[in-house]
Amino acid sequence: MALPYNKRTHDCGALRAADIGKSVLLSGWVDNFRDLGGMVFIDLRDRGGITQLKFDPNSDPAAHGIARTLRSEFVVCVRGEVISRGEKVNAKLPTGEIEVVVHEIELLSKSETPPFEISDDTETNEDLRLKHRVLDIRRPRMKNALMLRHKITRTIREYFDRNGFLDIETPILTKSTPEGARDYLVPSRIHHGCFFALPQSPQIFKQLLMIGGLDRYMQVARCFRDEDLRADRQPEFTQIDIEMAFVQAEDVMHHVETCIAEVAKVSRGLDVALPLPRISYAEAMLKYGKDAPDLRYDLTIKDVTEIAGRVDFGIFKDAIAKGGVVRCLVVPNGSEMTRKETDGLAEELKGIGAGGLPLVKVAVEGGKVVFQTGIAKFFTDAALVAEICTQIGAKSGDLILFAADHSDSVCKYLGWLRATVADRRGLIPKDRWAFCWVVDFPAFGYDAETKAVFPMHHPFTSPKDEDLHLLKLGTNEVPPKEDLLKVRAKAYDVVLNGIELGGGSIRIHRADVQSKIFQLLGLTPEDAKKKFAFLLDALRFGAPPHGGLALGLDRIIMLFGGYSSIREVIAFPKNARASCPLSDAPGEVAPEQLKELGISILK
RNA sequence: GGGGCUGUAGCUCAAUUGGUCAGAGCGCCGGCCUGUCACGCCGGAGGUUGCGGGUUCGAGCCCCGUCAGCCUCGCCA
């Protein structure tokens, strides 16, 4: 009865009415079985889909006898004939017009009862799914995610291949660079006390490839960062890493957006209008409170610092006195939100650092616009109320949410409120795909704690030409902090629906600019040499102007696949505590291994 | 490190104010059933309510601690 399971004629999603009459050999898993006492029906599943098998006790008693003993997830191989279902079509299945009447069956493998059903219908606890990822991957949803991943990755590879990019691998065992995220370290057996670092990104290597004259590079690159996780952050993730020589920002952006549009078409049938809209970092922060604005809905933040200064309300006055700002969000018809809802928002807002949530409801009394509830009592001047409403476009029935603090905090609070309120009040059109580029990032940020200037992107990011004068090139002077914070970078992020898909920059290729930047960042030439020696060496030998970008592949697949977490599009992801429930990694190692590496563990 | 949510049968969940509240659906096991496709019908097994302590006459429910999972702030080239 042994069947040649290696000679499958079709997969389980392939057969159609046109195949009626064919003799076929199928293999797969028992998805569902219906034993009617005489006739037995089995849904056979493999990667391609599901085909109904029919076992008839009269014509094929031996096969029927075996079929009766089958259970969920048993693995079988069958040989049979494709027949029409006649009137009994199952419209839910692509193969619903046919079934296979089985003449021979071989049980290849039994299965224990699975800990959860292999089905999309019930949402199983994710921890359990990750422990039994093998079974989880059999579910259509997961299977589709990984098939989508393949399709998108292939589309991207083909795009860049077609456009002259070379796919080049870079080292996984590399050297720790001091900037940025925590490194995952790998101890060296041969050099005790020394460590490799897994790359946070192939940043420096791709620059070296450009300086090496390879002109255009791309890689599907695994990146590693030992930081806390999120729904869209894993300790190891995949970037589409690209770099180009002799280009301006627009050239990089053109290729990236064209590629993304192709992915959108292939994965969702979307026609994305190009070029994508550009929005400055300053505008994004002001209007949306985020450097990755969600442009699917309007609901923009309004600055009311000037007018709020005329209100006798301590929170506003204090914030302004300290150089802060007052901004607000007008929630259309937000007056219908209950006290419980707004109190809830306030509580959650406190959880991210805010002192509270000043708010008012807009109403009309006696023909005049008035504020009610919340901090309404501080708005005693009817003319002022009218002026505010005109300025921010608030009308009766709206809810106004305020934030007063330093600009950074206000952006954080109102950005969070904007996204949260939009989501809870159903203001986000689910079928909209809002792409944009965020450009004109500041080159530097300022850390109040360390009182130090730091690079917003990385220290090799080129400032915009028109802002170069602020750097006092060719002198030893350090420009005032205020000037440095005005310098904009040739950096750009591509954003979809409020999630950063990727970012990049044009790199510095002028030695004088690079050394000035290091100086401004507080790095002596010796420091810089120590930290970035191999890049600086390379820059000495003729570096072409170059730049690139890295796209978060996992996020792209998550968004185009409609998943809520990148764990859903990664075959074997880590959980929120950065461990793998399947393999139980990370794990302890034998003392001998440690000894060989010259490592002892602190207790 | 901070904030929040969750933890009850193999899975998904329910259990009014602390008082027959140890329950349902699915799954599983056994039986019946020849056109099902979430097959149907009959019967059955299965739970230390994450764990530890406390309050109480009485705790799934309240309190404290702890563990685990998820979300989030910080952090994240």
Which keywords apply here?
603 residues, alpha+beta, OB fold (Dihydrolipoamide Acetyltransferase, E2P), Gyrase A, domain 2, eight-stranded mixed β-sheet, five-stranded mixed β-barrel, 22 strands, RNA-binding
Question: How would you characterize the overall build of this protein?
Answer:
30% of the residues lie in helices and 24% in strands. It has 603 residues and is of the alpha+beta class. It has four domains: 5-109, Nucleic acid-binding proteins (OB fold (Dihydrolipoamide Acetyltransferase, E2P), Beta Barrel); 120-278 and 494-506 and 544-603, Bira Bifunctional Protein, Domain 2 (BirA Bifunctional Protein, domain 2); 297-424, Gyrase A, domain 2; 442-488 and 510-542, no CATH class. It has an eight-stranded mixed β-sheet, sandwiched between helices. The longest helix has 23 residues, at 140-162. The structure holds one RNA strand of 77 nucleotides.
